[in-house]
Amino acid sequence: MMGMTRSVSYSALDESHLTTVLSDAPELQENEMKVGSTQANAPPVVPQAAEPESPAKSPVKEPLGMEKLSLADEEGAEGTEVQQPEPVHTETEEELAARLEEEARIAEIENKRLKIVIVSSEVAPWSKSGGLADVAEKLSIALSRRGHRVMTVSPAYGHYEGAIGTDIRRSFHMYGGSHECHYLHMWCPTEIGGDPNTTKIGVDRIFVQNQVAFERAGMYGEPGGHDYFDNLFRFALFSWAAVEAPLILPAIAPFGEKVIFIANDWQTGLVPLIIASHYRRWRVYEQARCLFIIHNMGYHGNFPNPQMYNYDLPDPRETPKWTFQDLGLADDLLYDVYKFQFPPEERGDGGEVDDGECCKLLMGAIHISDRIVTVSPSYKEEIQTPQGGKGLDEKIKQRSNRFDGILNGIDTTEWDPMTDKHLAAPFNVDDVSGKAVCKADVQERLGLHLDPTKPLVVFIGRLDPQKGIDVIQSCLNWMMGGDHEGILGDVQLVMMGSGMHEYAEFMRAAEAQYKGRICGYVGFSSEMEHKLIAGADLLLMPSKYEPCGLPQMYAQRYGTLPVVHATGGLKDSVDQWLAPAEEGGESTGTGWKFEPCHEGGLQWGLHNALRLYKKNPEDWAKTVRRAMSKDFSWDISAQKYEQLFEWVTMDEPVQRPWPFVHN
């Protein structure tokens, strides 16, 4: 018996020499790789890389000044002067020290340059249902600008302009059949101000194409309907293709084995499993590591086992269960960390036939990933509580030694009030006069009374209780009414969003009741979002929970002060406004945070914000400038991810199973 080892690894190749485009190298394409075989004695076939061609030999030339003289010259032709060789320069000690210092500097830069593979079920702008797509796009750009080589891998849900077929295909054995994936590639330059045709700074966008699995009406289910029945197969296939991608793509030079995977949410929950249970057992990806980002703890990726009971059997409880072999793995190693048993009261038939067994992709990934990350520090703490953990708080606590929270950033190029093409007038922290023009533009467009003195409050979000639209509903008449201090009574309110029908009807009714003071904008417009963020005075975000949230960061950059429930990323990104500690002192903070999330909390936050707006315009202006001065750029977040990369590469992998053996 002997251990199986991989004979050739792309990670051993010198990228600077491997410049042959894969589409021009048939030897890299014809070797089809059957990964995910259920036979433990069948190692993956690895395409052999051609050795770099040696440069064509040039005729040997004598050093300048040493050309041979003609016979006549040798005989001493009159007037001929023999040119003497130039003296050879001897490097001084200072020059040697400078050269060694420069070589050490370059070596240090190269040593810090990582190869990062972001695996996500969606990447903006090609596929997007929420913030996950933005993180996959923006984090990859930020990391590439910091000098790392970055790849994103996502499914090809349709035709994407600019995505080019690589002629690279791989077949993966699942559910008793072979399923082929085609890899599409797009190079996206990220260098600011660079020539897009020559820049070396960019992101390799990889799209996994399988028309049957991915090209459907919706990404996860029929629009407005249930999730697709075969989502386990779809995202298992995607995970296999994503883990294979760094070994064979992109078209110029593969990333190789020494990479850091960043998997995102339940759709990629099988990525750390495939790395550990398949590749590492073939002694591949031994130096690779996998971070797992939790964007929303509310979605676990539950797949019942069996998926459906066969009631034609004498005893439906005898219905065969599916195994990890059906997903292309050699055995059920690590199935126990993905297995979850629902209590009888939560089973489909109360537990008479259904034993409640399911595979939780999110839970399994939490167990076996090398490091876990959430999208804000406060959300990290919240999901370790029964209220925020959605039943997995104890599982999360078990990984507390390798668990971190990093606040997402925002695209400060897209969200810049000086260059925003959607705005009626530009402005910045040094000159905010354009903000008044933007406010007037919103009032006029949405049918509000044109009055610069009226405080304009906006809500932008999904019409769902999680976003707190019901809390705004409970406060509406209070907000529109007056009070003895003269704080309330002339507020203007814009609510924009789509979702549950009952809240859409509430918004329409509120607009009809308070014509000229309220606009209920049912639907969503990216252009209008920019206009509202720029023209408003206050932004309401009374979310019950919010893993990160982005509008509150956009708002502060645009001088719109947020009133938020103190949860998740809202708590981390808004500094609580505090009055001066003493006479003549300065106030601090950029917004108002309240808790708990109910009618009284929102009223407290909004009333304090409106008091500052009405009673102390000078301090209001200072608070606006403080908010606009905050740095929410992705570069800040990328630096914190770099620290995690350093830590995760210092540690041993969480899972290093015994390797496969063969006779």
Offer a quick outline of the entry.
With about 675 residues, the chain is α/β, with parallel strands linked by helices. About 30% of the residues lie in helices and about 15% in strands.
Descriptive account of the structure:
This protein has 663 residues and is of the alpha/beta class. It folds into two domains: 112-409 and 639-655, 3-Layer(aba) Sandwich (Rossmann fold), CATH 3.40.50.2000; 433-632, 3-Layer(aba) Sandwich (Rossmann fold). It has 19 helices and 21 strands.
List key phrases describing it.
Rossmann fold; 21 strands; disordered N terminus; 19 helices; 2 domains; globular; alpha/beta; 663 residues
**Poorly predicted runs:** 1-79
**Number of self-contained structural domains:** 2
Distance between the terminal alpha carbons, to the nearest Å?
5 Å
Radius of gyration: 31 Å
Computed structural class:
alpha/beta
**CATH class categorisation of the largest domain:** Alpha Beta
Compute the number of helices: 19
What is the topology, as strand order, of the major beta sheet? 2-5-6-7-4-3-8-9-13-14
Topology:
Layout lengths: L1 E2 L30 E2 L35 H4 L18 H20 L2 E5 L11 H15 L3 E7 L8 E11 L2 E13 L12 E8 L1 H4 L16 H18 L11 E5 L6 H9 L9 E6 L7 E3 L30 H4 E3 L15 E4 H8 L2 E4 L2 H6 L10 H5 L5 E3 L27 H13 L10 E5 L8 H12 L11 E6 L3 H13 L4 E5 L3 H10 L2 E4 L9 H7 L3 E5 L2 H6 L18 E3 L4 H17 L1 H12 L5 H17 L10 E2 L1
Parallel strand pairs: 2-5, 3-4, 3-8, 4-7, 8-9, 9-13, 13-14, 15-16, 15-18, 16-17, 18-19, 19-20
Antiparallel strand pairs: 1-21, 5-6, 6-7, 10-12, 11-12
Helix pairs in contact: 3-19, 11-14
